[in-house]
What does this fold into?
Amino acid sequence: MEPTVLYPGTLFYRVFHDSPVGMVITTLAEGRYVEVNNTFAQMLGYTPEQLIGQTFPMLGLGHTEERNMVIEVLRRAGKLGDIPLLLRTRNGETRTTIGSVQLEELDGKTYLVSMIQDLTDHERIQSALQSAESRFRVFFQNIPLPLLVYDVATLRFVDVNPAACRQYGYSHDEFLGMLVSDIWELTTPDELDAIRQRISDPTQTRLGVDRHRRKDGSRIDVDVVSYAFEMEDRPVRLSIAQDVTEQRAVENALRASEERLRIIANVTTDAMWDRNLLTDEVEWSPGLRSLFGFDLAGDLNHVWWHDHVHPNDRDDVEAGINAVLAGDEHFWADEYRFLCADGRYANVLDRGYVLRDDAGHAVRFIGAMVDITAQIQVAEAAARAAQEERQRLARDLHEAVTQSLYSASLMAEAARRHSSTADLSTTGEYVVRLSELSQQALRQLRLLVYGLRPTVLEQEGLVGALRHRLEACLLYTSPSPRDRTRSRMPSSAFKKNKTQLDYIILYDLINSSLAT
It folds into this structure.
């Protein structure tokens, strides 16, 4: 064992043993430990006493030729610094160190005095840091959202990712020569001051939606989330600037559509409804109150509506709705009876439109109920009136025209028989009576047809209507108001019937009034 070369109480002794850096003194020839401080011993997992007399285990300098070369350099230069060394610990681990070695004369002998610093933890930290930086760089470069890093004080860009280059149209090098204010759409200097104030506050992260400008001059709306941190002792911000131009346009259109729908719902008399198929909640317009008398307060959900459908209509209506919702159709319509607040049932026409998600699933059902009770009542009344009119017409035809035609057929048969016996005088009388019966049937038929045209009174007035009615009763073509000729037939044909003569006199009076 080498003798002690350091004496307690001396300055070198205190520096050697109190140093936070590993220090050892080894022999020049064999490289055996003469003095070892606690820092170095703990580095290798020993106590100083266990190392004294042992060989200095330096990996990389274990060969005699390498050791002799280092010693020769030391003899010439006196010392060597920053020598990378690998040391093997007691449990076999390898630690990375850096050492400084110099020759010293102690008690007349030459020794190697080495200072050794353990870099294992430092390298581990550096490696972890480099790995983290690599992962961050991969994340920064490949994230699809635009990332902008800029200096808070100068507003100059420090870094941007490829997504930002694609969104704004600038290259990476172009960005690094620009200020972040170059992409801001500002109208007044006050806006720039307000933005500077916001980004200077490190607690502000949600900067809101701003208007930015691309390289081609087009404007975009971006939702900015920004984080403040320090880089190389200067405050910087990393901003995520997501383009929400289309999203805002859709939201604005949706708000405008909902506003129009709200206005329509408030002014229309229809009972409009909006059913959320995910929650089964239903919103009703004021028409539910004005048409059916229900207060809008309360839980007026789908079950409530279902319970107010007439029991005889309920299953069919619900089945029709479910079939539309389960399929791929968008429109539904049905008529049914709906229980009003006063206890009566109203006939309603209900129509709906189905909104579906991207997968085709129904998520919303919007429609309107219309009270058609009055229309149905009018239609039923019209149907009853038409039926009554058909019955009256059939009765009139049977009682008037049909009987006249039957009598005419009897007269025709009698005339035929008398003509076959050459009784011409009797045959002539039957022919005259046959003519009168035919004329009477024609008058009756014209009167029935006239009764089906009540609009003549509205179109031509009272005089015109009377003239048309007289024409329906007379057996000849009525003259126009400009033609004063009474008839192309002899007047003797009408003297047998006083009623027909009265018609002719009245007809002449009407034509005279029209002419004057």
Summary: DSSP finds 16 helices and 16 strands in the chain.
